[in-house]
């Protein structure tokens, strides 16, 4: 499996990536196999080259108060995992630009429970420009404001998209963290919010985005160990990436892609260098194209290829064989799992049917009936479980 992990060294968090093979330790008792442990074998560490190491320095803001200097406002594109970006681009003709101040001041409590004041001048360099922007974006989440509420069209018309019923927490205002709860909030940020942010290749995250209505957010703009001032590594934020390319800078990124092999979608990844082609018109730089150079393909060995075969279920109807119910552990990025584990003493076990039948339309709009015998094989056991888990969301 492809695993992102974070190391702490030289007062910095280093985000790395490795390919591991999980090997089960099985014990047979009374004719039944039991999983008693998991061993991990590193197949390939994708950070053997120092060029591929990303330095991370997360900043933790608890009970933040922001002062904005409106004298110097700039327009930058924004994005957010909490809203359907495809709909935003369609609504605003590909435009996600938001005007905000470059210079701000934040009064907050850090992860060591110390009171601090940070003055951020976004005009100083690109790192602080995006830090200022990200801090304002995340602070908005604490006040129930999404960046779509601040979008401007060419004519300056503001439009607020309707928030789905299940996303209403995003429109709520957070509550200040009491002194006695601050240590617990820090633990929650370090264990859950940080891993969620890195898992989605984000540069910032607000507590509201992971279902916790508390005044806390994290900002971490990635830097790299690449010596050239015009090259750095970016792992995901498209707005940040586009801005750098438009500025004439080369960028090194990890790119996930899919190849169709033997009628299966195969997930791969590669490290590529993107180089902008710039044309100057009336003294202004314009991005007219992007060149690509593959630095490292992480899937040279067949062992590193992950086969993917997505199934699409439209208008599904499900029948469950309740006589085949089994207990399995479950989890979801939609809820803070650390809190769930704590509340239920580490148990996230759910009893569901092992054998199910799905009637649905597939991606070709063909009517299908799929009978899933979860007791036949581990693949179908987890397929059955996942299908029921996702179906629950529809209800």
TrEMBL record:
This is Peptide deformylase. Belongs to the polypeptide deformylase family. It catalyses: N-terminal N-formyl-L-methionyl-[peptide] + H2O = N-terminal L-methionyl-[peptide] + formate. Removes the formyl group from the N-terminal Met of newly synthesized proteins. Its EC number is 3.5.1.88. SUPFAM superfamilies: Peptide deformylase (SSF56420). GO terms for biological process: translation. It comes from Trichoplax adhaerens (Trichoplax reptans). Keywords: Hydrolase, Metal-binding, Protein biosynthesis. GO terms for molecular function: metal ion binding; peptide deformylase activity. The lineage of its organism: Eukaryota, Metazoa, Placozoa, Uniplacotomia, Trichoplacea. Gene3D superfamilies: Peptide deformylase (3.90.45.10). The keyword Disulfide bond does not apply. InterPro entries: Peptide_deformylase (IPR023635), Peptide_deformylase_sf (IPR036821).
């Amino acid at each position: 499996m492809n695993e992102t992990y974070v190391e702490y060294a030289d007062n910095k968090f280093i985000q790395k990536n490795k390919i591991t093979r999980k090997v089960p330790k099985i014990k047979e008792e009374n004719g039944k196999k039991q999983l008693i442990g998991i061993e991990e074998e590193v197949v390939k560490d994708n950070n053997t080259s120092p060029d591929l190491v990303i330095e991370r320095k997360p900043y933790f803001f608890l009970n933040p108060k922001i002062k904005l200097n409106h004298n110097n406002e700039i327009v930058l594109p924004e994005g957010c995992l909490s809203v359907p970006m495809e709909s935003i681009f369609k609504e605003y003709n590909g435009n996600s630009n938001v005007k905000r101040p470059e210079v701000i001041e934040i009064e907050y409590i850090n992860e060591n429970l110390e009171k601090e004041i940070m003055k951020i001048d976004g005009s100083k360099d690109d790192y602080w420009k995006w830090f200022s922007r990200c801090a304002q974006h995340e602070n908005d989440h604490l006040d129930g404001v999404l960046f779509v509420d601040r979008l401007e069209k060419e004519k300056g018309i503001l439009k607020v998209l309707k928030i789905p019923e299940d996303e209403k927490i995003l429109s709520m205002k957070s509550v200040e963290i009491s002194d006695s709860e601050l240590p617990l909030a820090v633990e929650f940020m370090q264990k859950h919010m940080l891993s969620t942010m890195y898992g989605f290749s984000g540069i910032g995250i607000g507590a509201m985005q992971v279902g916790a209505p508390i005044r806390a957010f994290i900002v971490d703009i990635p830097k790299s160990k690449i010596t050239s001032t015009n090259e750095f590594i970016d792992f995901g934020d498209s707005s940040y990436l586009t801005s750098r390319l438009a500025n004439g800078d080369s960028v090194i990124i990890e790119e996930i892609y899919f190849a169709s092999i033997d009628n299966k979608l195969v997930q791969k990844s590669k490290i590529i260098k993107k180089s902008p082609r710039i044309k100057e018109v009336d003294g202004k730089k314009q991005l007219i194209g992007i060149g690509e150079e593959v630095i490292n393909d992480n899937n040279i060995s067949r062992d590193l290829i992950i086969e993917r075969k997505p199934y699409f279920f439209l208008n599904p109807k499900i029948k469950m064989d309740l006589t085949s119910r089994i207990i399995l552990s479950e989890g979801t990025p939609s809820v803070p799992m650390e809190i769930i584990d704590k509340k239920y003493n580490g148990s996230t076990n759910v009893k569901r049917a092992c054998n199910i039948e799905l009637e649905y339309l597939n991606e070709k709009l063909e009517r299908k009936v799929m009978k899933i015998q979860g007791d036949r094989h581990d693949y179908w056991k987890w397929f059955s479980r996942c299908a029921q888990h996702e179906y629950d969301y529809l209800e």
